[in-house]
Each structure stands twice: as structure tokens, then as C-alpha cells.
Specification:
2 strands, 256 residues, two-stranded antiparallel ribbon, mainly alpha, single chain
Length: 256
């Protein structure tokens, strides 16, 4: 009885700290991605009242070549963090398999938040204009921009946003239950798109009525990241789910 009492009372603060770790990553993620939407949109009011840089304003580097090198480094940091930390070999060889799934995923979310914040804060604009679309097409481009973020959101919901952000894994850990088993997601948007979240991100990156060299650099870099990440993600899914994944990919209604 005394042992059970001690165990339950020592586990309580661990559960609280675990939930705080997971939910803080979730809350910060929403805040940072909202900042990233503003960063990409570069609305007119941002120069007057927005405290952070945008893709075309802010920065401290005047030399375009140096700015491009810094920006490429930031894009690489973002892409490497998202790709490497998601790979099974990284979890086994770097983390050593010692970290529970709940903390693995929550740590990934925190690291992703930091890489996105670094990209926003240290981005160096290269404001040489490539195109500038006027009305009435301008409004249509902004609708496509908004559609990209909606697609990203619903793609996350289709995948299972609680799993995606580590909240479901943390709930199981806090309750002393086994972590949820990985499932192949084939519902909702995954019935029509193989990678709805990636499609949403790319649409938001490229749908801009005013494209500059800096914005083009970001969109191109993120496109390369997505193409590489999709290849490795599909390889991991094939290794994990085998025939189920191959069968899903063969369905005639699926799109790339």
C-alpha cells in the first residue's frame, strides 16, 4: 500500500511536466506558424506595426550574395531538422532508442518551432522584384495562398493532429499505457492526395502576387526540401506498412 501511494504521488508531477512539455510545443507551434503566414504574406501593415521581419522587409544585410547564403543556411536548417529528426535511424542511432515516443515527438515539435523561429528572425530579404500581379488576378492569387494554409490544416487533421504533435503519445505515457500503434492514414484528404500537407505548404509558398528574389529563393528551397522529404517518407512508410501502403498507392483515385 505504501509503495503504491509513493508511486502514484511521484508519478503525478511527471505527468504534469510531460503534459506541459507536449502542450507548450503545441501552443508555440500555432503561434509561430501564424507568424510564418504573416512572414510570407508581407501585408502592408507589417512594416508599420509588425515586430518581426517578413520575407521582403527587415534584415540587416545589404549585399545580395551574402543575404542569399544566410537564407540558404536557414532553409537548410529547417529542412534538415524536419527530415533528419523524423527518420527512424535518427531515433535509434542518435537518440539511442532511450526516449519514449511521447518525448520523441514532443522534442521534434520543439525543435521544429526553433528552426522556424530562426528562419523568420534571421531571414535577409532580397527585394528585387520578379513579378507583380495586378487586379483582378491578384485577389485570385491571395485566395490560392489562403487555400494552401487551409489544405495544410485539414491535412494535419486528416493525419491526426494529436498524433502529429505528440499529444496522444504523451497522454498514453502519462496514463501508463502503451504508446498508440502507428497507423496508415488513408481517410479524408488522403483519399485524394498522397501528401496533402506538403501540397498545402507548396501552394502557400508559390501563391504570391508579388514575387521577389528572396521569396523565390525560399519557395525553391522549400520545394526541394519537400521533394526530398517525400521520397524518404514514402520509403519509411513502405518499410513500416509493407503491402498495405503499396495497395493504397495503387488505388486509381490517388493523386501524387
Amino acid at each position: 500500500m505504501a509503495l503504491a501511494y509513493f508511486d502514484s504521488h511521484t508519478r503525478f508531477p511527471k505527468r504534469v511536466l510531460g503534459h506541459a512539455y507536449a502542450w507548450s510545443g503545441f501552443a508555440v507551434m500555432w503561434g509561430f506558424w501564424t507568424c510564418f503566414v504573416i512572414f510570407l504574406a508581407d501585408p502592408p501593415w507589417a512594416a508599420r506595426s509588425w515586430p518581426l521581419p517578413t520575407v521582403d522587409t527587415g534584415g540587416i544585410v545589404d549585399h545580395s550574395g551574402l543575404a542569399a547564403l544566410i537564407d540558404l543556411g536557414l532553409i537548410s536548417l529547417f529542412g534538415l531538422q524536419h527530415s533528419l529528426m523524423a527518420r527512424p535511424w535518427f531515433k535509434q542511432q542518435i537518440l539511442g532508442g532511450r526516449m519514449s515516443q511521447a518525448f520523441e515527438r514532443s522534442t521534434f515539435v520543439h525543435a521544429a518551432n526553433l528552426s522556424l523561429l530562426a528562419l523568420i528572425i534571421f531571414w535577409q530579404p532580397i527585394s528585387i522584384e520578379i513579378w507583380n500581379i495586378g487586379t483582378p488576378w491578384r485577389e485570385g492569387v491571395w485566395l490560392a495562398f489562403a487555400a494552401g494554409w487551409v489544405l495544410l490544416l485539414f491535412g494535419a487533421l486528416s493525419f491526426g493532429i494529436l498524433d502529429l504533435l505528440g499529444l496522444e503519445q504523451m497522454r498514453a505515457w502519462a496514463n501508463g499505457a502503451a504508446p498508440p500503434k502507428p497507423r496508415l492514414r488513408t481517410g479524408f484528404l488522403y483519399r485524394w492526395l498522397r501528401h496533402p500537407m506538403y501540397v498545402g505548404v507548396l501552394l502557400a509558398m508559390w501563391a504570391t502576387p508579388q514575387m521577389t528574389i528572396g521569396h523565390l529563393l525560399l519557395a525553391t528551397g522549400m520545394t526541394l526540401y519537400v521533394l526530398i522529404a517525400m521520397r524518404y517518407e514514402e520509403r519509411d512508410l513502405k518499410a513500416r506498412f509493407g503491402g498495405s501502403y503499396a495497395h493504397w498507392r495503387r488505388q486509381p483515385t490517388r493523386q501524387s
